[in-house]
Amino acid sequence: MSKKRGQVRSAGAVNQEPRSRSTDWAGLSDISAVESLAHILGGITALAEALRGIAEQKTEQARIAAKAQTEIERVHAMREVLLQHLDRSFEERRVNFDALFSRLDSAIEKGNLDMAASTLDAVVKLAQSSPFKDLADVANARKALQDQGRTWEF
User: Fold this and answer.
1) CA–CA distance, 116 with 104 (Å, rounded to integer)
2) Dihedral class, residue 129 (left if φ above 0, else alpha if ψ from -120 to 50, else beta)
3) Residues 6+ apart with CB under 8 A from 16
4) Helix (H/G/I), strand (E/B), else coil: 136
5) Backbone angles phi, psi at 23, to 5 degrees
6) Mapped to the 3 state alphabet, what secondary structure does 47-92 carry?
7) Which of 12, 39, 75, 128 is least surrounded by Cβ atoms within 10 Å, i.e. has the fewest?
8) What is the pLDDT of residues 121-146, one digit of tens each?
9) Region Disordered: start and end of each range (predicted)?
């Protein structure tokens, strides 16, 4: 007796035809080629969606990084304006204090008590004033200029 490929002969066994079975990569049997293809296409579709999601996230990250850089540059510009303002303000305050103390010295030398008292009042007022008060005025002006609903008449 000759053996055909796929047939098994044993005592009392009947010749069996090999069954046509397909086995997918997950080990499931009896899945048709169409179903296997559908699973593969579903996996490819899921991968494509994941890649699109990754690309969208990278785009969003780039947008956020650009916005952060813009804000950092804005803060640096504001810092420069603040430092320049403080330099000018404190220089102006120094000059004002020098002038007031010179006037006080002159009033004391002349014995002019009224002038000395008014000069000391001016020194106290200048010392109590804050150079940051002017910055609040600048900030309010800037806010008003940025208000789109505000009408300006010249």
Assistant:
1) 5
2) beta
3) 7, 8
4) helix
5) -120, 125
6) HHHHHHHHHHHHHHHHHHHHHHHHHHHHHHHHHHHHHHHHHHHHHH
7) 12
8) 999 998 888 767 666 666 666 676 67
9) 1-24
Residue pair 143/127 in contact by the 8 Å Cβ criterion: no
Question: CB-based contacts of 15: which residues, under 8 Å, 6+ apart?
Answer: 4, 7, 9
pTM above 0.70, yes or no: no
Q: What is the pLDDT of residues 68-114, one digit of tens each?
A: 999 999 888 888 887 887 788 888 888 999 999 999 999 999 999 99
Q: Which residue has the tokens 């009947």?
A: 14
Amino acid at 27: G
What is the C-alpha to C-alpha distance for residues 40 and 33, in angstroms, rounded to an integer?
A: 10
Q: Which secondary-structure segment (H or E) carries 104?
A: helix 33-110
Cβ 134 vs Cβ 125: under 8 Å: no
Six-digit token pair at 56?
């969208």
Helix/strand/coil (H/E/C) assignment for every residue in 107-123: HHHHCCHHHHHHHHHHH
